[in-house]
Each structure stands twice: as C-alpha cells, then as structure tokens.
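User: Can you recover a sequence for this backbone? Please restate the input before giving your answer.

Assistant: Of course. Working from this structure:
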C-alpha cells in the first residue's frame, strides 16, 4: 500500500510539472493545465486509498483499477460534481476526469450495496485540505494520499 501512495504522489508531481501522456480522448487541455492522475484500487469491499487530499483545485483524472473479483465503479460526488467511471469487471481499469473546486467530496462504489459494505472514502481539495483536523501534514506539492490503515 505504501508503494501505491508513493506512485500516486509521483504521478501527480510529474503531471503538475507538465510531464504527462498525450491523450487522444478528445479532452482539450488548456495551456499548462494538464490533468493530474490519482489511482484508486477497488477490492471487496474497500477503496485504496480511501482518503485522498489534493492541494489545489483543478482537473484531475481518477484511474480506477478493479483489483477485486466482482464488478465495481467509482463515483465522485459533492460541490455540484457527480461523475462516475464506467462499470469495471474484475481486472479492468478505467478513467474518470473531473474539474474539482476547493472542498470535500465523497468517493464510493455505486454498484449495488458496495458503498454500505465499506467501499467509500473522502476526497479533500484545496484550502479545506490544510484545515482538515487530524490529517497528517505532508510537504508534497501536488497531491498526498493516505489510506488511514497499514
């Protein structure tokens, strides 16, 4: 898990530095505003990481990996945003790109009762991120993540 968090931070830092992959999905990238990528792994029945903190508002791509044995998806909801990944069979992955303002968002699997079984988490963006109570204070410039459990 620790390696995953380091990977997410490294990918986010690279994206923030302008190093990203070219993408042919028709998304229009503004000058110098490449989307940062955050990876979320889904299993029965959890999100890893379940807590995501992003320092600044902006466009983010959530790369969702279904590492479980059943169908999952990822929904991001809050502050006028309600975006969902495609439904992913076991072993599949997909992306959902969202424009996020400062604030707190819910992360969860919208399939059946997966959320009630523990597939939920919290996303905090911007100024609310540094004011979060009980959150560890990291010095990463682009994004920090933590799953809260070892």
């Amino acid at each position: 898990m620790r390696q995953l968090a380091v990977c997410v931070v490294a990918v986010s830092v690279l994206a923030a530095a302008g190093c990203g992959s070219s993408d042919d999905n028709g998304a229009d990238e503004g000058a110098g505003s490449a989307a940062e990528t955050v990876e979320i792994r889904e299993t029965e029945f959890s999100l890893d990481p379940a807590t995501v903190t992003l320092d600044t508002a902006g466009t983010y791509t959530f790369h969702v990996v279904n590492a479980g044995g059943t169908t999952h998806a990822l929904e991001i909801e809050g502050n006028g945003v309600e975006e969902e990944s495609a439904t992913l069979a076991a072993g599949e992955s997909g992306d959902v790109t969202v424009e996020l303002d400062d604030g707190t968002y819910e992360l969860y699997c919208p399939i059946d009762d997966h959320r009630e079984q523990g597939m939920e988490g919290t996303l905090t963006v911007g100024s609310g991120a540094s004011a979060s109570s009980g959150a560890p204070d990291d010095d990463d410039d682009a994004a920090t993540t933590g799953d809260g459990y070892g």
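That completes the design. The first helix runs from residue 2 to 16.
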